[in-house]
Amino acid sequence: MNTAPQSRMDMQELAHCIAALRPTLLRLAQLQLRNPAWAEDAVSETVLAVLQGAQRFNGASQLKTWIVGILKHKVLDQLRQHAREPTVADAGDDGEEDLDELLFKGDGHFRAMPEHWADPCSELQRDQFFAVLEACLEHLPNRQGRVFLMREWLEIDSHVICQELGIAPTNLWVQLHRARLRLRECLQSNWIGAPPR
User: FRET pair for 58, CA 20 to 30 Å: which of 26, 142, 172, 194?
Assistant: First the structure.
């Protein structure tokens, strides 16, 4: 495996990587923004920023990590831009893609293979865990899910979250506490305490 930074990124390889990551990027943006149009805008702006900044990527981190980092900033931009616009909560997510379809092909193989397989069982277990965690996040009530993702995924300061959402610090901590309890319960039911398949 070549660990030396790439001096010049192959644009065709970059385009293939972006296309493979797009469903994951869109899912991450939708989890936070809870608005398909805003999520699509954040992903489109991310792709544009990646293409424009490809020469600045030096290979110090994985390409996926770099792209997801850019997405985080674009999601924050969307949150700021639409901070005062009301959002309509989805009654049900019946029409959305299944999580398995995002991670696996029809034949059961991964859509995107990792660069190296140090321990295939650990990698598979980790991927399945994060698929369960993502599903648990989707079942949080809208406000709890948004607060949890703003604090834990986007790493926004607590006082900024309180200002953005117009809530008191005590309310924020209550929402975070409840979200963590629900996530723990969901993970215990669907991952930790679930019978082996």
Answer: 26
Report residue 173 as tokens: 């901590």
Of the candidates 144, 136, 148, the residue with the CA atom closest to the CA atom of residue 187 = 136
Top mean pLDDT of 24-33, 82-91, 117-126 is at 24-33
User: If you count them, how many residues does the chain have?
Assistant: 197
Spatial separation of the C-alpha atoms in residues 101 and 52, rounded to whole Å: 30
Tell me the β-bridge partners of 110: 104
**pLDDT tens digits, 104-121:** 777 777 777 656 656 767
- As a whole number of angstroms, the longest Cα–Cα distance in the chain is 50
Q: Which helix (H) or strand (E) holds 149?
A: none
What global pTM score does this model have? Answer: 0.46
